[in-house]
Amino acid sequence: MNTFKWLLQREYWEHKGAFFWAPLVVGALMTAFITISMVIALSGAGDGLRINGVNIAKLAAAMTPEQASAFAEKFIFSYAGITMPIFIVLGICIFFFCLGALFDERRDRSVLFWKSLPISDNATVLSKVVFAIGIAPVMAFVIATVTSLIIVLVVCVAAAAAGVNIFGSVMTNPATYVAPLQIAAILPIYAMWALPTIGWLLMVSAWARTKPLLWAVAVPVMAGIMMSWAERLLSLGVDVAWFWKNIIGRLLGSVFPGAWLSVDKRMPESDSGSGALTAFSEVLQQSWQLLAGANLWLGAAAGAAMIYVAIRLRGWRDEG
Predict the structure, then answer these.
(1) What is the mean pLDDT of each run of 10 residues along the chain (320 residues)?
(2) pTM of the predicted model, to two decimals?
(3) Radius of gyration of the chain (CA)
(4) Which of 21, 29, 63, 295 has its CA 20 to 30 A from that of 234?
(5) b/e string for 180-212 if b means 16 or more Cβ within 10 A?
């Protein structure tokens, strides 16, 4: 257990720039951009301060408490998603982390050093998997949550400066505090959904002699192009759109958080209104409903199989 913990620390030390500093810089830039935009808007430039497309100055005098509450509700629903760029950066970093995880150590011959230590191929590869689907998303989630809460504070202060006090409506709304917890509850689904891409990239990383990015992307894309060409030419009755979405899309895009929402569009019925808390609950429920379908499990099984192949390839293919 101590060895595995040390392996995880190794991954963090070697990739701290990608998984800690990159999301942190993106979050800081987003906060700075929004803060500067609020200052410019409050200074009278442009069309004034707008939040969710609503001109605050024009509504300040006429806004009733009910309207202020409704406005705050819409704002709360959008604030958790405003940090989506951080999760996009997370997906990109995980993609290239897995792609180079086993290739780079063969290229610089460091694999010979690691194999001289009493560390198994299983532990080495699985530490990379756990870091990619566990530790990295948690770090991004913490940074995104702190960033979103700072942005909420900035917007509330700007609205107050414009004459509308939404502090009470925002801070007393349960969604303000529950939304981050609901996002955290989706992380286990993300871990399972990301396995096909992680397994595919690790397998290519362990196998490719050179240019792993070309092999990882070109092989599935060319397979999709050939499938599309054969269907157009021979009318085989193959659902090409399904193949692109469920095979190629899963191989290359599953590491991006929320990708399953575009693949599995089952949405639970809700009669409890359209508030922010209800909306977040529906997304959470839709995500966990994937456990009842075959898509998640088949993808996870395929990812696990490819991870196993990557482990075996690392044990065999240690040449440069």
Answers:
(1) 88 94 95 88 62 56 62 69 90 96 85 77 94 96 92 85 76 81 93 97 94 95 92 82 91 93 61 57 88 93 97 73
(2) 0.87
(3) 23
(4) 295
(5) bebbeebbebbbbbbbbbbbbbbbbbbbbeeeb
